[in-house]
Specification:
Layout (H helix, E strand, L loop, with lengths): L6 E4 L9 H14 L7 H5 L6 H11 L6 H15 L9 H10 L3 E5 L4 H10 L8 E3 L12 H10 L6 E5 L2 H10 L2 E5 L16 E3 L17 E2 L3
Parallel strand pairs: 1-2, 1-4, 2-3, 4-5, 5-6, 6-7
Helix pairs in contact: 1-4, 3-4, 7-8
The structure holds 2-phosphoglycolic acid and magnesium ion.
Length: 228
């Protein structure tokens, strides 16, 4: 059976690429510049998901710093430019993108990572060629949890909202998909905080990206869950 959506919009960090260590590295280099304590990757991972500024704000709050975040951001972005290509793709991601693309499904990325870091990362992980649309945190006036970037991508792809599926890992993906009125799938790995996978309203919760392809075999109304 055919895949039941014409466009799939993927989140990036925590969904396609495991970028937490690379992000944590850039955060800690920035904290060191300001002579502040550093944090382990697990703790910093809890601050990912709402863009670089929120991430740095969280880090500096935890470090009890009252530094002006406007003064901190340029240094962070310089460090992140050095680490941003370090994250590996999760297992089966590239194969899944290739399969969907081969079936004629359009693919896009909607991330709260700054746009300048997105294409190089997708390119180095062998994914860039599969995507028609890419929206980063600074591409449009609004970003996730707003549904605006998702609606922008479906309009750009000339695909109806009802034919568009969002795949993500965290609260901001859920809120954005709900705001846009789009079905969404959650990955059970990734960087969610307090999000309850079972009650979030996802049509499916998957443990590995290739399980997304199982949607082609299911009744769209019932959805699937590979998470036990
Ligand atoms: O960089 C972030 O804050 C999160 O990025 P994501 O939207 O790709 O998960
Ligand atoms: Mg994410």
């Amino acid at each position: 059976m055919a895949f039941p959506y014409s466009l799939v919009i993927f989140d990036l960090d925590g969904t396609l690429v495991d970028s937490a260590a690379a992000i944590a590295d850039a955060v800690n280099r920035t904290l060191r510049d300001w002579k502040l304590p550093t944090y382990d990757t697990a703790e910093i991972t809890g601050w990912i998901g709402e863009g670089s500024r929120k991430l740095i704000t969280s880090a500096f709050q935890h470090a009890d710093s009252d530094a002006n975040i406007d003064d901190v951001m340029p240094g962070f972005l310089e460090h992140y430019a050095e680490t941003a290509l370090d994250g590996p793709a999760y297992d089966g991601v590239v194969e899944t993108l290739a399969s969907l693309h081969g079936q004629g499904v359009k693919l896009a990325v909607c991330t709260n990572k700054n746009e300048e870091f997105v294409r190089p990362l997708l390119e180095v992980r062998g994914m860039l060629r599969y995507f028609d649309g890419i929206v980063g945190a600074n591409t449009l006036p609004e970003r996730k949890p707003s549904g605006v970037p998702l609606r922008y991508l479906s309009t750009q792809a000339r695909v109806d909202i009802g034919q568009t599926l969002v795949v993500g890992d965290s609260e901001s993906d859920v809120l954005a998909a709900r705001d846009a009125g789009m079905d969404f799938v959650l990955v059970s790995y990734g960087y969610r905080k307090s999000l309850d996978l079972r009650t979030a309203g996802a049509i499916a919760v998957i443990d590995r990206m290739p399980d997304l392809l199982l949607l082609a075999q299911r009744d769209r109304a019932r959805g699937v869950s590979s998470s036990s």
